[in-house]
């Protein structure tokens, strides 16, 4: 098989999305992939990226996306890199192509000064780690020196049967009496909300919310992404104490399957946690998703944490898939 490793070309995105949907057709989260979702990750301007393909004369047989932050910030350091996605077409497997792509990606990251490489959460990631059912993939990365770090979970709730508990409705009334309100995002909230998220939460959350509430002047990128495709301010809620933002939540619609929705992120200022406010915000958002015609909601969260064990199950969420984050240190 005559193949080469080379940079991804702008006119190959459709073929790459098709490859994703062949490779991951049995995966629940992120399938089917859309061009918009794929390009959202490829075009993040805050990261150095290396998008490589393995190709034969007439077919792309594999792909890898490696990235590292361009500058140090409160969220990211420049000495940490990521493998955001690797996929090999079934016809190209067991021929050493996966290892070859990894080696090229690691060489790129080393030249950028990276000292640690992670497979898992980052703004360009397609998955929160490696599916625990993919034991061969985990074994593959272990042979390359990667070690298991932490476990995450994909959870799903059936919105068709969602009923807001009476105690949640009563709690919201009590919150209102204490001048704590949940309402839809308004245009005038934009700068205050973004600054609130920047101060209290992660870069990934900041970027997700920003894509929902702020249009950009440059509509298209080099790979043909309409950067305003994700704009949907009606999918964001704000939590207020009197007139001050103390929390938020949002959801996203699935481009291909309108009956599916992704819940989150959701965040509340630290000194307002532990009062049941989060549950009220959770149910308010899920009720809106149901009213929009969505039948199911999914999310990612830490597998061993309070959210997976107690918080999300209150709204009917159940674990459907577990993921392992892995890392390599030089």
Question: What does this protein structure show overall?
Answer:
- The protein has 330 residues and is α+β, with helices and mostly antiparallel strands.
- The protein folds into two domains: 4-127, Aminopeptidase (3-Layer(aba) Sandwich); 156-322, Aminopeptidase (3-Layer(aba) Sandwich), CATH 3.40.630.
- It is 30% helix and 30% strand.
- It is built from nine helices and 13 strands.
- The chain has helices at 13-23, 35-42, 97-111, 135-143, 166-177, 190-200, 203-213, 277-291, 306-311; strands spanning 4-7, 47-55, 60-69, 80-88, 116-119, 130-131, 147-158, 180-184, 236-241, 244-253, 260-268, 296-302, 318-329.
- Strands 1, 2, 3, 4, 5, 6, 7, 8, 9, 10, 11, 12 and 13 form a 13-stranded mixed beta sheet that branches.
- Strand 4, helix 3 (97-111) and strand 5 (116-119) form a beta-alpha-beta unit.
- The longest helix has 15 residues, at 97-111.
- It is elongated, with a radius of gyration of 21 Å.
- The protein starts with a strand and ends with a strand.
- Residues 217-227 have low confidence and may be disordered.
């Amino acid at each position: 098989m005559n193949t080469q490793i080379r940079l991804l070309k702008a006119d190959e995105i459709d073929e790459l999305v098709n490859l994703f949907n062949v490779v991951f057709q049995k995966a629940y989260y992120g399938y089917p992939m859309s061009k918009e979702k794929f390009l959202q990750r490829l075009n993040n301007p805050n990261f150095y990226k290396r998008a490589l393909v393995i190709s034969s004369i007439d077919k792309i047989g594999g792909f890898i996306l490696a990235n590292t932050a361009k500058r140090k910030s409160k969220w990211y350091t420049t000495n940490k890199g990521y493998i955001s996605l690797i996929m090999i077409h079934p016809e190209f497997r067991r021929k050493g192509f996966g290892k070859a792509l990894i080696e090229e990606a690691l060489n790129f990251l080393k030249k950028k000064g990276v000292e640690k490489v992670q497979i898992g959460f980052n703004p360009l990631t397609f998955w929160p780690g490696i599916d625990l059912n993919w034991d061969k993939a985990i074994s593959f990365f272990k042979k390359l020196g990667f070690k298991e770090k932490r476990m995450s979970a994909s959870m799903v709730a059936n919105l068709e049967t969602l009923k807001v508990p009476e105690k949640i409705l009563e709690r919201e009334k009590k919150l209102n009496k204490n001048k704590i309100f949940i309402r839809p995002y308004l245009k005038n909230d934009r700068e205050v909300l973004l600054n609130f998220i920047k101060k209290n939460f992660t870069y990934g959350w900041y970027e997700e919310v920003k894509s929902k509430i702020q249009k950009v002047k440059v509509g298209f990128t080099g790979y043909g992404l309409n950067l305003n495709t994700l704009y949907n301010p009606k999918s964001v809620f704000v939590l207020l104490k009197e007139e001050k933002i103390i929390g938020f939540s949002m959801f996203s619609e699935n481009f291909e399957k309108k009956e599916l929705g992704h819940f989150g992120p959701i965040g509340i200022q630290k000194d307002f946690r532990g009062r049941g406010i989060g549950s009220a915000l959770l149910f308010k958002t899920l009720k809106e998703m149901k009213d929009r015609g969505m039948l199911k909601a999914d999310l990612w969260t830490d597998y061993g944490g309070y959210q997976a064990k107690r918080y999300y199950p209150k709204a009917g969420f159940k674990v459907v898939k577990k993921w392992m984050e892995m890392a390599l240190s030089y």
